[in-house]
Predict the structure of histidine kinase.
Amino acid sequence: MDIKKRFIISNTITAIVPVIITVITISGFLFVSSKFLGMDMNYDGFKKNVLIRSELVAIRNDILKQNIENVEETKFQENLSQQISSLNGKFIIIKEHKIIANPNNINKIDIEKCMELVEKNKMDKKIVIDRISYMVEVININSKDNAAISLILLAPIGEDISLLNKLIIAAIVVYIISFIITNMIMSYLFSKRIIKPIKDLKKATIEISTGNLNCEIIEDGDKEIQELCHGFEAMRVQLKDSITMKMKYDDNRKVLISSISHDLKTPITSIKGYVEGILDGVANTQEKRKNYLKTIYSKAEHIDHMIDDLLLYSKLDLNQIPFNFEKTDIIEYFNYCVYEIEPELIKNNIKIQLKNDLKTCKYVMIDRERMRRVILNIIGNSCKYMDKEQGEITLNLRETNSSIIIEIRDNGSGIDNDDINKIFYRFYRSDTARSGAKGSGLGLSIAKQIVEGHKGRIWAVSHGDEGTSIMISLGKVMGNKQVEN
Ligand SMILES: Nc1ncnc2c1ncn2[C@@H]1O[C@H](COP(=O)(O)OP(=O)(O)OP(=O)(O)O)[C@@H](O)[C@H]1O
Ligand SMILES: [Mg+2]
C-alpha cells in the first residue's frame, strides 16, 4: 500500500469509527434501558415531549388571547380543564400566593415546587409528582383588580427529559473516548508501517557509514518506503561489491608483481651467470663461448616473449583490446588452423585430425586473429607436454541447443585432476612443466580472457595419463544473431 492511500484510509477510519461506536453504544443503551429498565427513551418519546410542549404553549397562547374577566369563574376553569384534559394534564390557579383552584388535589409541597419553578424562571420546567414527570407551563396574568395571577399547567411526560440530556452528554463522551482510542490505534499502525522501517533504515545507514557493509536492509513498510529500502540495499550491495572487487584487484596486483619478479629473475640470473662465465674466462674455447652466447640469446628471447604475453594479458584485463568479431564458418576456420600447424606437428611425430559432428549450425562470431592465438596455444601445449612416442591431437566439433563445443584432445602427459582448474590461473605451471618445457604460464590465462571476451567458456577435462581435453563453448549464430551461450 502506498503512503497516500494509507493516509486516506487512516483518516477515514479515525473519522468514521468513533461515530459508529457512539451510535452502537447509544442504541445499545437505549435498547437495554427500554427493554430491561422500562425507560421509554427513544425517538418517539422525545417526539412526544416536543408535542406536549407545543400543545402547552398553544394553550398558553390561547389563554393570553382571551380577555379573562375572572379566573375564579367555573366556566373558565371548566374550559381550561377541557383543554388540558387532551394532554391528561392538571392545572392550579394561584392568586396573590393563594391557591384558588386545585381540581386534582395536588399536595401543597408539590405546588410549592411549582411556585419555586415559576419564581426561578427555569428553562427546563419539569416536576415529578407521584413518580410521574410533568412538564410545567406557567401563565402570569393580572386580574382586573390588579392582583397577580399564576396559572400553572401540568402535562405528564413519559420520561424525564434530563435523561435525554445526559444521553447526549454520554454520546459526546463516548465519541471523544472512541476518537482518542481509534486515533491512537491508527497512529500505532501508521508508525509500524512507516516510522519503524525508516528508523531501521536510519540504523542501517549509520552502520554502512561506519564501514559495516554486511547489514542487510530489509524491504519493509509501505510501497514508497520499500522502494527507498530497495534503493539503499542496491547501493549497499554495489558498494560492497566494488570494495570486494578493489580488494581482489589489490591482491591480484600483489600476486602479479611477485610472480613477474620471480619469473623474470630466473632467466636474468642465468643470463648473468653465463655472462660472468664469459668474462671470467670459464668459456675459454670458441665453441664454449658460442654455446654460452646462444643460451644467453634464448633466455633473452624467453624474457621478450614473457613481456609480450604480460603486456597482452594486462591489456585484455583492462579491456583495452577491441575485438573484431566476424561471422565465421567454424569448419572452414579449423580446417585452415590444422593446415597451418600440421607441418610443425608432423616434425614432432604428432598426428592431428578434425572431427566434425555439427548438424544444424556451423557459424560463430569470432575475432579470427585472437581465436587463432587461443587454438595455437592449446595445440602448442599439447605438443609441449607430449610424452608419447606417437602423439595424437583431435579437434572435435559438436553442438548443444545454444552453443558450439570445440574439444581439443591430446594423448599427452595429462594433468592431475586436482590441478585441472588451476591451469587457467596466471603463471600457473605444473612442476614438470617448470623443470622441462619453456613457457611463462600465461598462455591459458590469455586464452581464457579471449574466450570470455567472446562471451564463451573454456575449461579442461583430465583423462589421467591418457591426456587432456581443453573445451571451448561459443554461442551459435542463427541467421545473423548470436545465441546466448
Ligand atoms: N595439454 C596439456 N598437457 C599437460 N599439461 C598441460 C597441458 N596444457 C597445459 N598444461 C599445464 O598447464 C600449465 C599452464 O599452461 P599455459 O599454456 O598457461 O602456460 P605454459 O604453456 O606453461 O606457458 P606459455 O605461457 O608459454 O603458454 C602448463 O605449464 C602445464 O603444466
Ligand atoms: Mg602454453
Q: What stands out?
A: Residues 377, 380-381, 439, 443 surround magnesium ion (ligand 2) (CB under 6 Å). The first strand starts at residue 90 and ends at 95.
